[in-house]
Specification:
The structure is a homodimer. By secondary structure, chain A is mostly helical. Chain A has two domains: 164 residues, Orthogonal Bundle (Cytochrome Bc1 Complex, Chain D, domain 2); 133 residues, Cytochrome Bc1 Complex, Chain D, domain 2, CATH 1.10.760. Chain A is 38% helix and 2% strand. Chain A has 14 helices and two strands. In chain A, strands 1-2 form a two-stranded antiparallel ribbon. In chain A, helix 1 crosses helix 11. The longest helix of chain A is centred in the first third of the chain and has 22 residues. Chain A is globular and about 65 Å long. Chains A and B meet through loops of A and loops of B. Chains A, B: Its EC number is 1.11.1.5. Chains A, B: InterPro entries: Cyt_c-like_dom (IPR009056), Cyt_c-like_dom_sf (IPR036909), Cytochrome_c_Peroxidase/MauG (IPR051395), Di-haem_cyt_c_peroxidsae (IPR004852), MauG/Cytc_peroxidase (IPR026259). Chains A, B: It is found in: Periplasm. Chains A, B: Its cofactor is heme. Chains A, B: It comes from Methylacidimicrobium cyclopophantes.
Chain lengths: 343, 343
């Protein structure tokens, strides 16, 4: 795994240097495959196998407002599947209209990333799914409340037994997260760029191919590589020029290690054209501006308008195509013993 | 129309008296059809014809948070299609976490009702759809903001042109409501009881048929008749015994007519078993308790536990079967000129 990643880095850097040297050749599908890899159909986790029963339950729970204290906020509230898995806000609204500190990243393809949250404080979507449910600024529930609500609804009890057949007490907070994560592991979105990687060279326009070249030659693939086009490493935001507005200490808040100040997980760029606003605080709405900011902050490059536009043209090829439509669940009714909403 | 309604009333009352007199005969499918009628496939409105283009646009707008000032609240926030078209709260949460004064009724089959809102202040779903969008306690937008947001998104401009082909300036607040209403006119939910009405006598269990008899013989069909099993008239809540807790003056707030104090639209009972809590303020969570309260308030009847349970058994046959699953839209991205969220 480490060897593969190192190899990839060398390839990426080699590609970058090669292209920066002015040859200007097109990144062909095979080279793209080397840099980015092939999108799987499901982001498997051997510790939490993706089964149809678990996915069905997880989908219900993903839309389940009763996982929140107020019974008004679900996973889908901030990671809306009709909005490419994000919410279009700079930072999200939680319990009693509290604004969160960071922009909600898209849930689409999130399961592919090597860590979760902007600061990587959760190792996978199983661990991530628990966070917002009990965060007092987000869904503001407690583990106990969640389990009590679900145990009070016979259809859920049955669904947990089906999804976790070996489990003596399947309706648990861990299994809430396991089921939601299993559902999220299916939320992968092939794009036209994946068809290109698969060898369909004609699927991209000349402008888009040029954009891919620019993306690679500028050096974006130093960080935005792998199957998520990002989501594979931590990086300091502002390794060359720290943006003035950047206050969030990022991963330092988790590790308290000075070297982690302003360090964030490199976000996946899949669906980036559909998921403005950008950056950890959602302060930038223009993708072109975001691209310029990153090139200057990370690579010390002042991109021309045409370079930035060219990269944006490529980034549009990373949008889900066709768009992901998830047939929504039918949620079961509460029973008389279901703990009431607490707005 | 009036003659038909009068005839229906006579029939209903006759049925009621007949059954109350102790014969205890089963309400057969033909009698049920006389009392309730046949659920249409679409709730048509000649003034706003239901077309595929309008429904497609209306579905997008129904899920569209950008119709709200904060860009965080959509129609679906309070009338959630995964929750039988309601939100499971006593009263709904709006802009800046404001609690509304009345319980959000289900959107399912709402288009069939003779008036909209608890107090009937809108005549149809076309008029209703505008209310929450500009209500400062709900979505808190303005007509101008809504139109500006939609006009800034090319996919919406195109969709409005397709949905309203005769219209020179189709992206209008009226057409937002017309499109949402056209979508809502398709949200009708056949139930097992509709199969019974259609002549499939075996679809209901003996207990359910007994429940139907109780429902009719107690006199519930005096108000809860017609294709919505309600939704066809205004009635004073507490015509015999006004509930102590009832403070809301209902339709009086619209008409300022003393006779309209505590008068509300009779709610449709379709999907009632899925849409707790009950009454104008969502104060009652038990359907059995709601049934008892209504029988005492409206008919002066103190129902026994077994009578109330029997009616509840019948009411469960009014739940959507199969449950309604609406394939969600894929919402277009904002453009740089889209007015930003204002949380």
């Amino acid at each position: 795994m480490i060897v593969r990643r190192l190899l990839l880095c060398v390839l990426v850097l080699a590609n970058g240097c090669f292209l920066r040297s002015g040859f200007g050749q097109t990144i062909d599908p095979d080279q793209a495959k080397q840099i980015f890899g092939i999108l799987p159909q499901v982001a498997e986790n051997p510790q939490n196998p993706v089964t149809p029963e678990k996915v069905a339950l997880g989908k219900s729970l993903y839309f389940e407002r009763r996982l929140s204290k107020s019974s008004s906020i679900s996973c889908n509230s901030c990671h809306d599947l009709t909005m490419a898995g994000a919410d279009g806000l700079s930072t999200s609204l939680g319990y009693r209209w509290q604004l969160g500190p960071r922009n909600a990243p898209t849930v689409l393809n999130a399961a592919l990333e090597f860590a979760q949250f902007w600061d990587g404080r959760a190792k996978d979507v199983e661990e991530q799914a628990k966070g917002p449910i009990v965060n007092p600024k987000e869904m503001a529930a407690t583990k106990e409340l969640v389990v009590q609500r679900l145990k009070s609804i016979p259809e859920y009890v049955e669904a947990f037994h089906k999804a976790f057949p070996g489990d003596k007490d399947p309706v648990s907070f861990d299994n809430v997260a396991n089921a939601i994560a299993a559902f999220e592991r299916t939320l992968l979105t092939p794009s036209r760029f994946d068809q290109y990687i698969a060898g369909n060279s004609g699927i991209l326009t000349e402008q888009e191919k040029q954009g891919l070249n620019t993306f690679v030659s500028v050096g974006c693939t130093t960080c935005h590589n792998g199957v998520g086009v990002g989501g594979g490493s931590f990086q300091k935001f502002g390794v060359i020029h720290k943006p003035d507005w950047l206050k969030d200490l990022g991963r330092y808040e988790v590790t308290k290690n000075d070297a982690d100040k302003y360090v964030f997980k490199v976000p996946s760029l899949r669906n980036v054209a559909l998921t403005a606003p950008y950056f950890n605080d959602g302060s930038v709405w223009s993708l072109e501006e975001a691209v310029k900011t990153m090139a200057f902050a990370q690579l010390g490059r002042k991109l021309s308008d045409s370079e930035a536009k060219s990269i944006v043209t490529f980034l549009h090829t990373l949008s889900a195509d066709p768009g992901l439509v998830v047939s929504p669940p039918i949620l079961p009714a509460s029973s008389l013993s279901t703990p009431k909403p607490m707005p």
